[in-house]
Amino acid sequence: MTAPAQPHRHRLLQAGPLLPALEQALVARYAVQRLSDEADPQAFLAAHGADFDGYVTSAVMGLDAARLAQLPKLRVVSSFGVGLDRIDLAAAVARGVQVGFTPGVLDDCVADLAFALLLDTMRRVSAADRFVRRGAWPAGPFGLSRRVSGARLGLVGFGRIGQTIARRASGFDMAVRYHSRRPVEGSACPHEPSLHALAAWADVLVVITAGGAATRHLIDRAVLDALGPEGFLVNVSRGSVVDEAALVEALQTGRIAGAGLDVFADEPQVPEALRALDSVVLTPHVASATRETRQAMADRVIDNLEAFFRDGQVRFSALS
Ligand code: 8YV
Questions:
Q1: Is 238 a catalytic residue?
Q2: Phi, psi angles (nearest 5°) of residue 191
Q3: Interatomic CA distance for residues 110 and 261, integer angstroms
Q4: How far does residue 211's CA lie from ligand 1's centre (Å)?
Q5: CATH 3.40.50.720 fits 107-282, yes or no
Q6: Which one, 93, 118, 220, 274, has the greatest CB density within 10 A?
Q7: For the whole model, what pTM was predicted?
Q8: Mean pLDDT of the chain
Q9: Is residue 285 annotated as a catalytic residue, yes or no?
Q10: Does the C-beta of 54 come closer than 6 Å to ligand 1?
Q11: Distance from C-alpha of 219 to C-alpha of 81, rounded to nearest angstrom
Q12: Tens of pLDDT along 162-207?
């Protein structure tokens, strides 16, 4: 166990592994300690928790109130990602700790992956690829899939990413409606106040709402039944938003047609029941994972820290 050196530099605790280019940029500017390198992180925090000004984490690794309490001198958190469901913002506010995140730079890539999953599930691209690879084609044709152009797209959540997905959909002549707590002013897409009505209307439901307690299991058995046996589900938000057990059952019994999933209830564990289904396309939480977008996110993480240590204010605050 080593205490961080270089007392003249701001001391950052890094929750775990991050993009290598970001780790290099952090080390070039600050005295950085990676908590996940410690054999006994709890003992390390007990001995050195008071040494750190800043905490660097990600939307997936987060920062809970217990960890925050182990860092009594902490002044700033810089998170790699837009999701805030794993960061205890109330605890940070109560302590006067600023929280920076990376909005605006990942909307396009998350929307692109949502569309990739939508196209793949409806047109059965991955299933057709498996069909060709296992040599099944000579024995007979691959079955029919579903037309995407002109289909009805229901968006659950209509923030920056939801609106970007809607723009992608216009290129496919899709009809788009959305469900959110409040209608978005100035949008050409109709707001649907009832999630069940949206699911019943849609051919494909794309979930892009925030995670956390308020949206836990929003997509439940009743919503899946409203989507129906011809309907598809795509989730690029958080696994917690979908009742995964209800989803597995709906897929196994053909009560919905298929699903494209980038996020899961207990990542990185993906239930065997989902992996066994040919009607499901699975990706390992990679919606923002392009070189360009991850670098832009890394730049925001650094921007937030530099702005805080220079001006006392992160550039992109999760608290405003
Ligand atoms: C990043 C995400 O996943 O921004 C988010 O909320 O879930 C992803 O963009 C992820 O934080 C990388 O660890």
A1: yes
A2: -85, 135
A3: 12
A4: 12
A5: yes
A6: 118
A7: 0.95
A8: 96
A9: yes
A10: no
A11: 23
A12: 999 999 999 999 999 999 999 999 999 999 999 999 999 999 999 9
